[in-house]
Amino acid sequence: MSKAPAPTPAPNAKFDSPVPIISPHYCVPHEVNLSIVRQILNVTGGNFEVTDVNGTVIFEVNQRILSLRGLRVLFDGNGNPVVTIRDKILSAHDRWKVYRGDSVEESDLIFSVKRTSIVQLRTKLHVFLANNTTEEACDFWVEADFSDNSCIVYIGQSSSKVAKMEKNKTVRSVLFGKDHLKITIDPNIDYGFIVALIMILDAIPSQLATARSVISGMRLVS
């Protein structure tokens, strides 16, 4: 598959044309509403599936494929790899790199994400597209609140929202150990890209716990 160019978004602007961060296939000229059903009783992290308004599975994530190299794969509804995420949770700034398909080659890098802050259950992420090599300014940023499973995605360094996730209060989410979330995405925004960002957010709590355990072990050894 050829790598589609991903233009750097302008601050304080909505998109009148498609912005294919991952693929033009995931850009549509109307608002997109998706639902996430996530397993919340899984000790290894959240397995989840993403469905459209008709209940059709669009994406799937299974954390049981988590490898020692810190890789996670987002699949489409047919089981094809959409993106692979590699994390570096013990780096100076927690960073994730997102690659096309099942690749981890730098030539297939789509975007990277850096955690800039975390205060209790709130965190902020800066997103840099692959063509933003200087990283002087982020292309998107994400503000998340883990206490209520919500997040908002903004353009550039502005306050212009392009997507949001929140709990689906119409569903009894405690049933069967499942969490039900809903995502609303602006027209022409790559909804595969938004799901990949949420996939990263979903992994942060368990990764931080693992990092704390590793650091604690290192202190004990020293």
UniProtKB/TrEMBL annotation:
InterPro entries: LOR, LOR_sf, Tubby-like_C
Superkingdom of origin organism: Eukaryota
Family the entry assigns: Belongs to the LOR family.
Protein name per its UniProtKB record: Uncharacterized protein
Provenance organism: Carpinus fangiana
